[in-house]
């Protein structure tokens, strides 16, 4: 019997980029172009410290966005992150103010976020409720807790906290902060988890087709709960980094941060419907937001609202781009 | 075989869905090293029995034993771990993941806890080579055709060191070559001692490979028979529970006078119509009352031709005339306005709205043609819906049942009813009988013949040549996205000649490649 192969296709040409990496590369190109514009317009922009500052100023956003990436990859959404960040900072500030040992404070602060995330994940999975609604409830709950702890902002004077905040890690002429190292470590761990662990691969599978994932025998429920727990943990870490950055806990801080992180994730090339995207893209997405901010600061004459306008435009552009890539695939 | 112990026994299984008793005291046993066909009409409970076994659904009564041990799987994961591996009725993989990963996800080769991608690729390639599938395993699965996806699903199921392999209608989207390949693999596995459950509506495949047949009807067990002792006619009778003459063979319906039909002006005429990258330019006329059969292998461009006529894709070359008047059908709304209806092969993604009831799904297209301001009166709805539920024997015959809860074949019938009800002038049917049991299949064929007698033009796409030949006045052969032949269906035309038209092209291509 001569059987013709079902589909013969030669090896991929080396220059052909896999379709799913196009959005990330587009983001990378965008980032380079914007950085190029900055360097050509302002002399001080070419200072390497400008790049480091991007990480210093956006470290907490990056960590939270990494957690959001996990959630969005499964096709879900987590609206509670901003509030959880604020709550973590509030709890830390308040406990430190009461004289609790900083190590214990760290531990408690790191537990609150994942616990709430775990609870939301369970509700989403066991009661089969839209993540949008569940995490919206989580968002109100966490924000409520902030004001319940204190209606005014609490300054942090603890020695460990202030040294963590002010410690400058020198790299040649320039420096970064502890937060930057923490954020990069989170990115590395997350990228590894997504690419090389079963948990990570299950996340992609669920985003591709949840029903299929179930029938393929993958632990869908466990993975979904894990993803919201991870997002909670990232928010908690983000909250601590934010409290390093501001050296205080304020009940109304990080309002709307969930939207910034979603924007960063989407600009980073992750599909909102799930199943496609990379943590590296999210890193680029956060940097893009950071560069926009920096450019507008350098200009000095533009109001900071321009940041929002540009981000809005970019979001549109990237969603269109993803759409186009999707159509071409068909 | 009887002195051996069954690897799997299911005893007195019952499963009740709200309002439907899908399984009622069903027994089933499976021996190592056999292919066991599970047969029954649409909605008989075949897929449900499988899902109960693998733990997708819980049982309401009954016991399952595997290797003499009573089991109750909490889900497919446990079933797979215990050596029961399944390819479900609809392709159930993740289109966004690579081919290799689709095969191995859940049991990826790992080194020091990390997924070993290189090893995974190598093993995937090896596994697929065994079934003659030579594709780039790093590409996302979604970039390949349905047939390839189906083969990948089977490769996945085969690789898990299964003792029991369940295939629920695995052949419905494969063409003849691919089916032959699949059957070959099944034989190989059977000889290795694996027990295989095979669900299909193709009787010749059953008789080609099955050792034993279990028949279900309306959720009840009819009986278990060695294939050799159950003639084909008897099998059909057991499935439908009626004497076969109630089904009476549908003889060549296309005997009607073709000259008279094609005398006047064609209803639609395509002149050099084509779309770059989709179908090469072709010319084709369809007259009122004419059935044009579209034959060709999977992926030969049959569906693409249909989509051009329906405006689902826009032609970028050539002209189209309706009633002799040049028109460009730019989108489906325009097509529907001109009396064209398109019953898609892809009921899951393009056709039905699972949450809506059978009634609502059937009325949908008709309502759309009338415009939303003129609702179809409820009485008329009921009347029409009832008529088509009966005509197509949709089961359960409950207009208020959400379509999602219907069996695969019955969903297909609902989709068909939706378009029939609009009484189009040109009806395009893309694989309308795929996954449909033979009773209903004959009903659908008869209906098509009736409709064309009544003056409706039909473009009939099917992978089953007998069906195409029986119904069509003219058979159009597609190959490699080109229209390669138009054959009048007179006395001289038989399956052989059509096959040759399909194949000669294929052979030519091989020559060109060499
Ligand atoms: N989730 C569900 N909820 C309610 N009813 C269901 C559900 N799944 C199946 N049914 C009903 O159970 C019966 C058996 O369906 P099943 O899918 O097992 O049929 P089948 O034999 O596989 O048919 P086909 O050949 O069409 O695939 C049908 O009447 C169907 O409507
Ligand atoms: Mg079925």
Can you describe this structure?
The complex is a heterodimer of chains A (330) and B (514). Chain A is 71% helix and 3% strand. Chain A has 330 residues and is mainly α. Chain A has a single domain (20-36, 46-318), classed as ABC transporter involved in vitamin B12 uptake, BtuC (Orthogonal Bundle). A two-stranded antiparallel ribbon of chain A has the order 1-4. In chain A, strands 2-3 form a two-stranded antiparallel sheet. In chain A, strand 2 (169-171) and strand 3 form a beta hairpin. In chain A, helix 11 (257-267) crosses helix 12. The radius of gyration of chain A is 21 Å and the shape is globular. The model of chain A is unreliable at 1-11 (pLDDT under 50). By secondary structure, chain B is of the alpha/beta class. Chain B has three domains: 8-242, 3-Layer(aba) Sandwich (Rossmann fold), CATH 3.40.50; 272-339 and 424-514, P-loop containing nucleotide triphosphate hydrolases (Rossmann fold), CATH 3.40.50.300; 345-423, no CATH class. Helices cover 36% and strands 24% of the residues of chain B. Chain B has 18 helices and 22 strands. Chain B has helices at residues 46-53, 76-81, 99-104, 117-130, 146-159, 176-191, 203-209, 232-240, 258-261, 302-310, 332-337, 347-351, 358-370, 378-391, 408-420, 438-453, 465-471, 495-513; strands at residues 8-17, 20-30, 35-39, 61-66, 69-71, 84-87, 110-111, 114-115, 164-168, 195-199, 212-217, 220-226, 268-275, 279-286, 291-295, 317-322, 325-327, 340-343, 426-430, 457-461, 474-479, 482-488. In chain B, the strands form five sheets. A six-stranded mixed β-sheet of chain B has the order 6-9-10-3-11-12, sandwiched between helices. In chain B, helix 13 packs parallel to helix 15. The longest helix of chain B is centred in the C-terminal third of the chain and has 19 residues, at 495-513. In chain B, 47% of the residues are buried. The A-B interface holds A 1, 3-9, 11-12, 18-20, 192, 195-198, 201-202, 204-205, 207-209, 211-219, 275-276, 329 and B 56, 75-81, 86, 88, 92-97, 101, 105-106, 108, 113-115, 132-136, 138-140, 142-145, 147-148, 151, 156, 177-178, 180-181, 184, 506, 510. Bound molecules: adenosine-5'-triphosphate and magnesium ion. Adenosine-5'-triphosphate is lined by residues 17, 20, 22, 40, 42-48, 89, 395-396, 405-410 of chain B. Magnesium ion binds at residues 46-47, 89, 168, 407-408 of chain B.
């Amino acid at each position: 019997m001569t059987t013709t192969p079902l589909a013969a296709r030669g090896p991929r040409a080396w220059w052909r980029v896999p379709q799913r990496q196009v959005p990330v590369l587009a983001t990378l190109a965008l980032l380079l172009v914007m950085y190029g514009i900055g360097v050509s317009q302002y002399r001080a922009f070419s200072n390497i410290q400008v790049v480091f500052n991007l990480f210093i100023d956006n470290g907490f956003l990056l960590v939270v966005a990494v957690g959001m990436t996990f959630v969005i990859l499964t096709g879900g959404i987590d609206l509670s992150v901003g509030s959880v960040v604020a709550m973590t900072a509030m709890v830390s500030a308040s406990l430190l103010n009461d004289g609790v040992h900083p190590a214990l404070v760290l531990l408690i602060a790191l537990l609150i976020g994942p616990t709430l995330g775990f609870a939301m994940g369970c509700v989403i999975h066991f009661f089969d409720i839209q993540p949008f609604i569940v995490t919206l409830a989580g968002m109100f709950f966490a924000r409520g807790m902030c004001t319940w702890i204190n209606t005014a902002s609490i300054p942090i004077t603890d020695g460990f906290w202030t040294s963590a905040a002010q410690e400058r890690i020198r790299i040649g002429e320039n420096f970064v902060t502890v937060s930057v190292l923490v954020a990069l470590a989170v990115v590395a761990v997350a990228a590894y988890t997504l690419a090389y662990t079963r948990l990570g691969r299950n996340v992609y599978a669920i985003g591709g087709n949840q029903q299929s994932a179930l029938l393929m025998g993958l632990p869908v429920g466990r993975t979904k709960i894990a993803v919201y727990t991870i997002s909670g943990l990232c928010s908690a870490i983000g909250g601590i980094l934010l409290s390093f950055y501001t050296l205080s806990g304020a009940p109304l801080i990080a309002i709307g941060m969930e939207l910034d992180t979603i924007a960063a994730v989407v600009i980073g090339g992750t599909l909102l419907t799930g199943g496609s995207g990379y943590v590296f893209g999210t890193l680029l997405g956060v940097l893009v937001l950071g560069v926009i901010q920096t450019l507008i600061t350098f200009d000095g004459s533009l109001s900071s609202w321009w940041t929002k306008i540009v981000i809005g435009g970019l979001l549109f552009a990237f969603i269109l781009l993803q759409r186009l890539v999707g159509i071409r695939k068909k | 075989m009887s002195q051996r112990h069954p690897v799997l026994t299911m005893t007195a299984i019952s499963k009740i869905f709200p309002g439907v008793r899908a399984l009622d005291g069903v027994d089933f046993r499976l021996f190592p090293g056999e292919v066991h066909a599970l047969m029954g009409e649409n909605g008989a409970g075949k897929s449900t029995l499988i899902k109960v076994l693998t733990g997708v659904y819980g049982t309401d009564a009954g016991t399952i034993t595997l290797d003499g041990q009573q089991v109750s799987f909490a889900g497919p994961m446990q079933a797979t771990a215990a050596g029961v591996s399944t390819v479900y009725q609809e392709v159930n993989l993740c289109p966004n993941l690579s081919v290799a990963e689709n095969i191995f996800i859940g049991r990826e080769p790992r080194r020091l806890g990390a997924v070993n991608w290189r090893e995974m690729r190598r093993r995937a390639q090896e596994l697929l080579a065994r079934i003659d599938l030579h594709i780039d395993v790093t590409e996302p699965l979604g970039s390949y055709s349905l047939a390839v996806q189906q083969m990948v699903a089977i490769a996945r199921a085969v690789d898990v060191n299964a003792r029991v392999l369940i295939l629920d209608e695995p052949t419905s989207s494969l063409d003849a070559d691919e089916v032959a390949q699949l059957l070959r693999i099944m034989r190989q596995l059977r000889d290795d001692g694996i027990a295989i459950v095979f669900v299909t509506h193709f009787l010749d495949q059953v008789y080609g490979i099955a050792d034993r047949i279990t028949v279900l009807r309306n959720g009840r067990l009819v009986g278990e028979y060695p294939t050799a002792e159950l003639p084909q006619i008897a099998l059909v009778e057991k499935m439908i529970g009626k004497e076969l003459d109630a089904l009476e063979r549908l003889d060549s319906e296309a005997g009607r006078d073709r000259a008279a039909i094609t005398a006047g002006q064609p209803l639609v005429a395509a002149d050099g119509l084509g779309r770059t990258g989709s179908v090469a330019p072709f010319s084709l006329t369809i007259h009122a009352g004419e059935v044009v059969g579209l034959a060709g292998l999977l992926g030969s461009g049959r569906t693409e031709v249909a989509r051009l006529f329906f405006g689902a894709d826009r032609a970028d070359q050539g002209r189209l005339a309706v009633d002799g008047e040049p028109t460009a059908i730019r989108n489906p709304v325009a097509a529907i306005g001109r009396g064209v209806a398109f019953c898609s092969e892809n009921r899951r993604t393009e056709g039905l709205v699972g949450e809506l009831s059978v009634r609502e799904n059937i009325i949908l297209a008709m309502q759309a043609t009338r415009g939303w301001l003129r609702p179809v009166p409820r009485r008329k709805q009921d009347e029409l819906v009832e008529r088509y539920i009966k005509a197509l024997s949709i089961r359960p015959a409950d207009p208020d049942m959400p379509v999602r809860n219907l069996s695969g074949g019955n969903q297909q019938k609902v989709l068909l009813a939706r378009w029939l009800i609009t009484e189009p002038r040109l009806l395009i049917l893309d694989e309308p009988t795929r996954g449909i049991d033979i009773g209903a299949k004959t009903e659908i064929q008869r209906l098509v013949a009736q409709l064309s007698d009544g003056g409706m033009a039909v473009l009939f796409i099917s992978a089953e040549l007998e069906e195409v030949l029986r119904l069509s006045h003219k058979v159009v052969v597609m190959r490699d996205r080109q229209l390669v032949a138009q054959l009048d269906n007179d006395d001289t035309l038989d399956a052989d000649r059509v096959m040759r038209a399909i194949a000669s092209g294929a052979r030519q291509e091989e020559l060109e490649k060499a």
